[in-house]
Design a protein that fits this description.
500 residues; mainly alpha; two-stranded antiparallel sheet; 21 helices
C-alpha cells in the first residue's frame, strides 16, 4: 500500500505512475493552507540520507534493523516455525471454546487485507524501475526478515489484549505498550507511547488506509468505466455504503468478508501473473540471472547493488508493514489458548505479501522486459504495461485487482483505527458508531478530492506508528522469548495438542 509515499521517498514526482482525482480549486486551497503545517512533519518522519546517489529513508532502516534483531534473537523463528504456522492456520489446534472472536485463518486474512494493497501492484513497479531486477532479491530478503517482527508484535498483541464479558476483545500495540512497559516499571513511557501510537493510527486509518485507497480505486474504475469520470462523489458514496455494510458488524463481519475476498483476489492476481510467466517460460532463466546479478552488480541502475538493496528494502517495508504494529490489532481478536500461536500465524503475512505477491509482480515486469526504462513509465503504469505485454485484456484484470486490494485495505484499516479510537475514548457501541460514520464520510472525501498534503501526512502517521511500536518491542522481546519457551514446553508435554 501507500504508493504515493513510495513515489515520494523514491524522489519521483507524485504524479509519476499514479492517477489522482483532478485537483479542484477547493483542493488547492486546502492543500496550500495545510502544507506549511504538515510538510515539516512529513519531512521529519521520512528523513532520508544519500547513499551512493540514492535517498534512503531512515524509517526503513529502523524497520529493517529491528527485523534483523528479532530474527537473530528468536533463533530464525520464521524458518523453524513455518510448518507449525501452516498447521495453526488450518485450524489443527483450534478449540472453538477458546477466548476470542475470529479463527486464526480469519485473523490472518484480515491482517493480510490491510497489507496486500495497491503497493503490491504499483510500488513494485517503482522499485524495479529505480533499482532494476536486483531489487527483487533484496525485497525478498527484507520480507523474510520481517516475518520475525510480525511474530514478535502479534504474540504481544494477544498476550496483553483486553477480554470483555460479552466475548469481544481489544488488543494491539496501544495495549502492550501501556500494560507491558508498566510491568517493567516504565508506566509513564508506556502510556506516552500508547497514546502516540493511537493518534498516529487514527490519522493513518483515515488517510492512507481510507482516502488514498478510495482515490486510487476511483481512478482505476473511471479508467475502465467512462460513466464515472468526473463523478468521484458518486463512486465514493457507493464505496462508503459497501464499506459501511461490512464494518458496521465489527471484526466478525470484517473477518467473514476478508476470509473470502483475500484468497479470491490473491488467486486472481497471482493466477494472471503465473499465466504470463508460463507464456514467457523461456525467459525465466534470464530473469533469474538479472535478479541475482542485479542484486550484487557494482554498476547498474540507481547505484548498482546499493541502489537495488535500498529499493528492495523500501518496497518490503512499505508493503508488509512488519514492525508498524497494525497487524497485531487484527490478530489480537483471534481465538486461542496461548498468545504464541498467533505469533506463528502472523509470521506468514510478510511471506505471502512480499515473498509471493510482490515477487510475482516483479517477475512479470522483469520477464516481459517491461522494466527497461522507457519514457519514464513507472508505478502502476509500468505494472500495467507488463501485464498487457501478452494479453491486452489483462489490463482489466489488473484494474479489478487494484480495486479489490484497495477495498480490502479500507475495511481492515477501519478496524485498526476503531481500536485506536476506543483506546483513546473508551469502549461502547455509540463511540464505535461515531468512528465508523467518520470513516465512511472520509471514503467519499477521498474519492472526490485530491488533498495531496493530507494524504502525505496520513502516510507519515502510519510510519510514525513504527517509532513507538519498535521501541516497545525492544523492551518486551524478553517477554516474548519467555512465552515462546512456555509454549514449546506445552507442545512437547502434550498439554497443547492438535484438535484434529
Amino acid at each position: 500500500m501507500l504508493k504515493r509515499l513510495l513515489l515520494a521517498c523514491a524522489g519521483l514526482p507524485l504524479t509519476a505512475g499514479v492517477a489522482y482525482a483532478q485537483e479542484s480549486g477547493i483542493d488547492q486551497a486546502i492543500s496550500e493552507a495545510i502544507a506549511p503545517i504538515v510538510n515539516p512533519i512529513v519531512n521529519t518522519v521520512f528523513y532520508s540520507v544519500p547513499v551512493f546517489g540514492t535517498n534512503f529513508p531512515l524509517i526503513v532502516a529502523w524497520l529493517v534493523i529491528a527485523a534483523v534483531v528479532f530474527t537473530v534473537y528468536f533463533g530464525f523463528i520464521q524458518f523453524r516455525g513455518f510448518k507449525h504456522s501452516i498447521e495453526l492456520v488450518r485450524g489443527d489446534y483450534l478449540d472453538p471454546n477458546d477466548a476470542g472472536e475470529v479463527t486464526p485463518f480469519q485473523a490472518l486474512a484480515t491482517a493480510l487485507s490491510g497489507t496486500v494493497g495497491l503497493g503490491n501492484i504499483a510500488g513494485v513497479g517503482v522499485a524495479v524501475y529505480l533499482g532494476g531486477p536486483g531489487a527483487t532479491f533484496w525485497m525478498i530478503l527484507a520480507g523474510l526478515l520481517g516475518m520475525a517482527s510480525k511474530f514478535t508484535e502479534c504474540t504481544l498483541g494477544v498476550h496483553y489484549r483486553n477480554e470483555y464479558k460479552d466475548g469481544t476483545v481489544s488488543g494491539g500495540p496501544m495495549y502492550y505498550l501501556s500494560k507491558g512497559l508498566s510491568e517493567d516499571g516504565k508506566a509513564r513511557l508506556g502510556k506516552f507511547l500508547a497514546i502516540f501510537f493511537s493518534i498516529c493510527c487514527i490519522g493513518g486509518a483515515l488517510g492512507g488506509g481510507n482516502m488514498f485507497q478510495a482515490n486510487q480505486s476511483f481512478a482505476q474504475i473511471s479508467s475502465i468505466i467512462p460513466f464515472f469520470e468526473g463523478k468521484g462523489w458518486l463512486f465514493g458514496l457507493i464505496m462508503a455504503a459497501v464499506v459501511g455494510i461490512v464494518i458496521i458488524g465489527g471484526i466478525k463481519s470484517i473477518a467473514r468478508v476478508t476470509e473470502k475476498i483475500v484468497p479470491g483476489m490473491a488467486v486472481l492476481y497471482v493466477g494472471a501473473a503465473l499465466i504470463i510467466i508460463v507464456v514467457n517460460f523461456g525467459e525465466i532463466p534470464n530473469a533469474i540471472s538479472a535478479i541475482i546479478g542485479g542484486a550484487f552488480s557494482p554498476t547498474a541502475v540507481a547505484g548498482g547493488a546499493i541502489g537495488a538493496l535500498i529499493q528492495g528494502f523500501k518496497r518490503a517495508a512499505f508493503s508488509n508493514e512488519a514492525g508498524i504494529g497494525s497487524a497485531s490489532i487484527a490478530h489480537s481478536a483471534v481465538q486461542t489458548k496461548h498468545p504464541v500461536t498467533e505469533g506463528y500465524v502472523a509470521l506468514l503475512e510478510p511471506f505471502i505479501d512480499t515473498v509471493v505477491i510482490c515477487t510475482m509482480t516483479s517477475l512479470v515486469i522483469t520477464i516481459t522486459g517491461s522494466w527497461v526504462p522507457d519514457n519514464g513509465v513507472t508505478g502502476i503504469a509500468l505494472t500495467s504495461k507488463a501485464f498487457e505485454a501478452n494479453f491486452s485484456g489483462f489490463g482489466y484484470v489488473l484494474a479489478i485487482a487494484a480495486v479489490l486490494f484497495a477495498f480490502s485495505t479500507m475495511i481492515s484499516w477501519s478496524y485498526y483505527g476503531l481500536k485506536a479510537w476506543t483506546y483513546m475514548f473508551g469502549e461502547g457501541k455509540a463511540k464505535e458508531l461515531v468512528f465508523k460514520a467518520i470513516f465512511c464520510v472520509f471514503v467519499v472525501i477521498g474519492a472526490s478530492m485530491s488533498l495531496g498534503p493530507v494524504i502525505d501526512f496520513s502516510d507519515a502517521m502510519i510510519f510514525a506508528m513504527a517509532i513507538a511500536n519498535i521501541i516497545g518491542l525492544y523492551f518486551l522481546m524478553p517477554k516474548v522469548k519467555a512465552l515462546l519457551k512456555d509454549y514449546q514446553a506445552k507442545l512437547a508435554s502434550g498439554e497443547i495438542k492438535k484438535i484434529k
